[in-house]
Write a structure and sequence with these properties.
Chains A, B: DTDP-4-dehydro-6-deoxy-alpha-D-glucose 2 binds at residues 168, 265, 328, 344-346, 349-350. Chains A, B: It comes from Streptomonospora mangrovi. Two copies of one chain form a homodimer. Helices cover 17% and strands 36% of the residues of chain A. By secondary structure, chain A is an alpha+beta fold. Chain A has helices at 15-28, 131-135, 199-205, 214-221, 236-249, 360-364, 398-402, 414-420, 429-439; strands spanning 32-36, 44-46, 53-55, 62-71, 79-87, 92-101, 104-113, 121-124, 127-129, 156-164, 174-181, 194-198, 251-257, 265-267, 272-274, 280-288, 296-304, 308-317, 320-329, 337-340, 343-345, 371-378, 388-395, 409-413. In chain A, strands 6, 7, 8, 9, 10, 11 and 12 form a seven-stranded mixed sheet that branches. In chain A, strands 18, 19, 20, 21, 22, 23 and 24 form a seven-stranded mixed sheet that branches. In chain A, strands 1, 14, 15, 16 and 17 form a five-stranded antiparallel sheet that branches. In chain A, strand 2 and strand 3 (53-55) form a beta hairpin. Chain A is built from nine helices and 24 strands. The interface between A and B is medium-sized, with 29 and 29 residues.
């Protein structure tokens, strides 16, 4: 699959029309999202025995405590901390329906409101459903277009893989990422919340801040890409061996603990916060919406403190583009470690420490001609409130490019990344956003 | 890698000499393994608060309770049960050192005593070490040949992947499986407990009962095999999508629980057993050995009730061999489901039920000319006592071969299996034993 130059009709809507439509849907939706004290959050309460924040149905998700002990070999100090974490064990479906028209692949994208999104309405997958959604547990409408992803009528599968989500905020969360191609001859009605958009147009939209939501980005990252026979710096066996070594070296032991009893975190009337004001807060919001499955509800959201920076350093080896990948431990990841961007952090959380994370300064100080991609995107707006990060692809300078890779980092070719993302839990969700930008042609290579 | 016809010197020991050597090592070792009551097991005790069986050092492993709830969609009844489970969160290393001599790849295999093995001494990987072993926590000797697998002197990696172990008996256990090739010119001393053995000789040895231990089998399963361009019945995308669907369909929720409080299991002086005498028992043994790292010790072992049957049905599509793979849920697997053999069960556990597991009768009733492989092997002798299963590869009869695959089963080509086993947690440990038999040429194809 290659990003086509086709940006407009007849295959799909033009990028500027999509942006105008998203804006219109946001205005027309009559949406409001406002913080409320925990005591006013209908349906949600703190369990008396554990202090965990749960829904009275026992469904949706819960906010629990987590006790983490992590070490990475003899040389570095072991770390131990407590934190709140979102526990949502069910596997949701994120599915994008594709269809070939006039030789061009187009994607059926949804204008979807999520309370935590900046701008509220962003471009989303065709289907974005928790198990509760698609089995009807919370009494909403049937999920549109679900039949193309499940059951006997489904189309030809282009990608279908379980992928992890944010390891610092979710406890072992995975979602099913599906890209399915419908028959070219099928007449698929475009419901008013949906538009056909080409890959080229998606690439353009990804250059805008907060236009394409996280769920769409992670599915697009899994899109099959024509693999070249290009030589990578490290062959696949070496790459997998290095990664196995990193997974073995880092011991991340995370156990749930009663939220009401974890140290260093303070519960107030309207938030749970770290005592130093770092990392994130847990809040609840009241949501009103005209177009979502249920028109009014309350829910907890996790609100990060500060804008993140998420960046790949880029360089070519023998003309083949490679990104500098970090084998990054995260407490909520099932395997402890996944492949992350070169830089993935919220700089404000490091202000009290002596040293910034590796490569952060190199990324932030890069002159404009080395910045191949830059845009701010929101993370999952159904669970995170204004969780924004500046996503960057930056050409490495001569000094960085020439230096040997530090422990925990490897240059990996884009082809290798596209190969790994077909399998579960190699590539973390932040790296998948940047991979989607490559796949859709949003990065100036 | 292909199984070579070379069975003997100068590249490696002949199969019959290896068998004689294993037998001699068993006789010379002065080994004894005898059951003892829990109260006499030095260093092991039941925690007062939970009833979990633990070591006083806090190390090695523990036997805890597990509460499992499993369902697989609307049609089938949900299941719920409790069981003891072995919890050993550390990642061990199973490594086989290879070296090319005269064009033939040979493997440095160890004669290793494990208390639970039938025959006690079996052929083992070059290195078989828990993290406690190789960091010296329990005060044993340094691990021989470890330098070829770790650190700056290590050889060329042929395979290096984290693999799950028995999902019914271990809680989310993974080990690092490594196959490393030393420089052909290196002079590697053959310590008295070690012998060089060719792939062809390993294939012959795998046709003997209880000669090659589980740890050796799982590493051999990961050996790189020359991949053909053969067409599989289901292409890789279809295969991965089916597997993703199976992982999504099965919900396996397993939480540890106090061993002392789980229902249906009875703790007696010398065993913990299921009240109906099914599944397995937890016992402790006193071990005396002359050649192991520590000469005397006590430890718990899990003793299954009855001989298992583990079998792949085999057929060709367009001349290409395929095995019928089962997407099998197991409570202790991190992802709930992995790819298992067509049949994997202990028939005695089904005696009280109306129906045997699918394909069990087809496998057991097969006439000799359709049995392409048959041998009894022991599972991990360091944790399981006489955990034996009859491993089989059986050519499918015309009726089975012609029928559509039932839900949860797929015909997968051997090439596809060899490709998947390079990644973590696709192929379960029982299927890996049979894959090793294919890789070593032990199956009459």
């Amino acid at each position: 699959m290659r990003a086509s130059a086709a940006l407009t009709a007849p295959e799909g809507a033009a990028p500027e029309d999509v942006l105008a439509w998203l804006s219109r849907r946001a205005d027309q939706g009559g949406f409001s999202v406002r913080p409320v004290p925990f005591a006013e959050a209908d349906g949600w309460y703190f369990r008396a025995d554990t202090g965990d924040l749960v829904h009275r149905s026992g469904g949706f998700f819960s906010v629990e405590g987590l006790h983490v002990r992590a070490d990475s070999g003899e040389e570095e100090a072991a770390a131990e901390w407590h934190q709140p974490i979102i526990n949502q064990p069910e596997i949701g479906v994120l599915g994008i329906l594709a269809q070939r028209r006039g030789g061009v692949l187009r994607f059926l994208m949804q204008a979807k409101m999520e309370p935590g999104n900046r701008n509220l309405v962003q471009l989303s997958p065709t289907v974005q459903a928790t198990r509760s959604n698609y089995t009807g547990v919370h009494g909403g409408r049937a999920v549109r277009y679900l039949e193309y992803f499940m059951g006997p009528r489904r189309g030809r599968v282009l990608a279908d893989v379980l992928q992890s989500e944010h390891g610092s905020w979710f406890l072992r969360k995975v979602n099913r990422n599906m890209l399915v191609e419908a028959d070219p001859a099928a007449d698929i009605p475009e419901h008013e919340d949906f538009r056909w958009v080409t890959l080229g147009a998606l690439g353009r939209l990804l250059r805008h801040d907060n236009a394409v939501n996280m769920d769409a980005r992670t599915v697009l990252a899994c899109a099959p890409v024509e693999e070249g026979a290009d030589r990578a710096l490290h062959d696949d066996t070496e790459l997998l061996s290095w990664f196995t070594g990193e997974r073995t070296r880092h011991r991340v032991r995370a156990r749930t603990a009663p939220l009401g009893a974890i140290p260093d975190w303070v519960r107030e009337e309207d938030r749970i916060r770290h005592e130093a004001g770092r990392y994130f807060e847990v809040v609840t919001v009241a949501v009103e919406a005209g177009t979502r499955e249920v028109a009014r509800w309350h829910q907890p959201l996790l609100r990060p403190c500060g804008l993140g920076v998420t960046a790949f350093l880029l360089r070519r080896f023998g003309g083949v583009p490679h990104v500098l990948v970090h084998a990054r431990p995260e407490a909520g990841l099932m395997d402890g470690v996944e492949l992350a961007p070169t830089v993935q952090c919220t700089p404000a959380n490091y202000a009290h420490l002596d040293a910034p994370p590796p490569f952060l300064d190199a990324v932030l100080a890069a002159p404009p001609e080395r910045v191949r991609y830059a845009a701010v995107h929101s993370e999952e707006g159904g669970r995170f409130l204004h969780a924004e990060s500046r996503y960057l692809v930056v050409e490495a300078d001569a000094a960085t490019a020439a230096a040997p890779e530090p422990a925990g980092y490897r240059w990996v070719s884009l082809d290798q990344m596209h190969g790994l993302v077909r399998h579960t839990r190699y590539v973390n969700v932040q790296a998948r956003t940047l991979l989607a930008c490559f796949a859709c042609g949003a990065v100036d290579l």
